[in-house]
Amino acid sequence: MFNITIIGTINKDTIIFPDGRAKQSFGGILFNILALSYLGKDRVKILPVCNLGYDLFPEVMAYLEDLRNVDLSGITKVKKKNNHAFLYYDKIGERKEVLRYSVPKLLFKDIKPFLKSDVILVNFISGFDLSLATLKKIRKNSDALIFMDLHSLTLGIKKDGKRFQRPPSRWKEWISQADILQLNFLELLTLAKKELKTLKAIKDFGEKILNLGVKFILVTNGEKSGYFISKYKNKAKAQRVKVPKIEKVVDTTGCGDIFSSAFIIYYLKNKEPKKSFEFANFIATQRCRYSGIENLKKLSEYKR
User: Which of 58, 84, 87, 236 is least enclosed, having the fewest CB within 10 Å?
Assistant: First the structure.
């Protein structure tokens, strides 16, 4: 059995589709918890660590209480309203986000009991889920493999709650705490502050990230090919990784979280990072066939 600690935030999501339809669901690391539970089955123990607003606490805990491989002791009820993300999609799949409310950052004392895991997944859902000082303490006090999904760390927030892309302050220090880094292509460009139009350009910038101590970089890119960047004989190597095609994309919310979960499950069993990327692409693509968290149990049908 593998122990997997998840650090981040559970969101309330309101998804607004291009035709004006709206759907309310839960998101954030709840996607990770459920995907890891269904994919890992009896081979994993999942330890989510997050602050959860009083307004969502009863409903979320009731949703999770029947999952035998999930330890809920790291989920703390707080006196503030929970994060509520409004996600606006346009016809080409681009997304704009507005965030209302915010739970407090996690402190090291909240995370310390859960450091003796095989993997620590740090998923930046709000971008202010924990501080850099706390992340450094995690790295210093744990031998776990640290998987970082950069995600909302690259999002600033305006006074009205609107999110916008920008390179995070001291991003090299943040990334240097990770063994495996996941980010999408837009986030990679945000860090690079320039266009990366060729595979060589992607490899060259990826090498700068690898030199910070990261072992593998997983760059997702929607329906287009992603990129797996690693070192081979002390030199950076970037490879395209194709995405399976599906007839109809219903909703892409949470696909990055499903991707990280699937990668971790496959990697723990097989220790083959590129094949883990391919498996994660497949699982994330299947997720796009439906919306919300209600149908995630279907993930348990897919073999690792």
Answer: 58
Question: What burial class does residue 81 get, using C-beta atoms within 10 Å of its C-beta: 0-12 exposed, 13-18 middle, 19+ buried?
Answer: middle
Angle separating helix axes 57-64 and 29-40, nearest 10 degrees: 10
**How many structural domains is the chain composed of?**
1
Token pair 């971008």 in the structure block, residue: 127
CATH code where residue 22 lies = 3.40.1190.20
**pLDDT tens readout for residues 77-134:** 999 999 999 999 888 778 899 999 999 999 999 999 999 999 999 999 999 999 999 9
In which domain, by residue range, is 258 found? 2-301
Supply the pTM of this predicted model. Answer: 0.95
Of 34, 23, 25, 29, the C-alpha closest to 10 is: 29
Closest CA to 199 of 241, 256, 260: 241
